[in-house]
Amino acid sequence: MKRLLLAAFAIIAFLTPSCMQQQMQQIAYNSKVVVLDIGHYFEPTRGGQGARTPDATKGGMIEETEFWYRYAGEVKKTIEEAGYSCRICNRGDVPNDPKLAAAAEKAGVHHVKSPIPTAIYRSTHHPRRIAVGMLSTNYALDQQPGAVVYLHHNSNSARWRVFNKGAFYCNEVGVRMAQTMAQVMSRDILDTPDGSGMPNNGVPCGVVLRTDGRKGGGDWLNACNESYVPAVITEVAFLSNPQHARYLNKHENAVKFARVIGRGVVEYLNQR
Ligand SMILES: [Zn+2]
């Protein structure tokens, strides 16, 4: 009898973690919630703290945080029109720029208000994961999402330089989502035959699996991965590429770009 009890305990101990994992997998798989994170944060005197164009000669300055304050609402709209629920967050506080504050309010941005937005914080869900900006990921995983998208742009030079190897960086469970988003990006906006799309010299949008820990938000992706939540960092447009900057400086193009990101997420969720 005693031996039987011990065996039963051993089986329970063995099963419990995998049951928990299965449950987490099911929650993510069944979730209709998408969380968008506006990258970096807005600093009251210096403005958006992300990448920016080298200068204003291509139709105006673009800074990625400010760009996404203006256009994250378009990504959200696309996702919600398809029947999913979408929440937007940012690691910082409400921008003191009245136009950006109004855009944030309109899009319903939740400000996480990290006490020091440039400091490293720990994941509450997976405590061995630490990163700058982790409080956004804590918020995102609190929503029990089916997908998380970190809205960024890239830049690889302080000077103008044509560079076309943009990509969606993703976690392991997010590879399919990133592939779908890249396909939609290449199909609907990069070098479209009618010439209305974003010029990219024939280079399709890439996908990069990132498991390298703290580097560039790697642990946001890892924390999501450990909750079985597909997560993607958008690094498709290069603000140091004059062709991309000129394109995104037109309001209707920026809306189109944001909507293509939303469409990629929707196509992935519809095919799950
Ligand atoms: Zn960024």
Description:
- With 272 residues, the protein is of the alpha/beta class.
- It has one domain (37-271): Aminopeptidase, CATH 3.40.630.
- The chain is 43% helix and 16% strand.
- It contains eight helices and eleven strands.
- The chain has helices at 2-30, 64-81, 98-107, 134-142, 175-188, 218-226, 242-248, 251-271, and strands spanning 33-38, 42-43, 47-48, 85-90, 109-111, 120-122, 130-132, 147-151, 167-170, 206-209, 231-235.
- The strands form three sheets. A seven-stranded mixed sheet has the order 5-4-1-8-11-9-10, with helices on both faces. Strands 2-3 form a two-stranded antiparallel ribbon.
- Strand 9, helix 5 (175-188) and strand 10 (206-209) form a beta-alpha-beta unit.
- Helix 2 (64-81) crosses helix 8.
- The longest helix is centred in the first third of the chain and has 29 residues, at 2-30.
- The radius of gyration is 20 Å and the shape is globular.
- The N and C termini lie far apart (46 Å).
- The mean pLDDT is 95.
- Zinc ion (ZN) binds at residues 39-40, 50-51, 64, 152.
Average pLDDT reading:
95
Q: Give the C-level CATH assignment.
A: Alpha Beta
Low-confidence stretches: none
| CATH-scheme architecture | 3-Layer(aba) Sandwich
> What's the total helix number?
8
The overall number of domains is 1
Estimate percent helicity.
40-55%
Secondary-structure element sequence? HEEEHEHEEEHEEHEHEHH
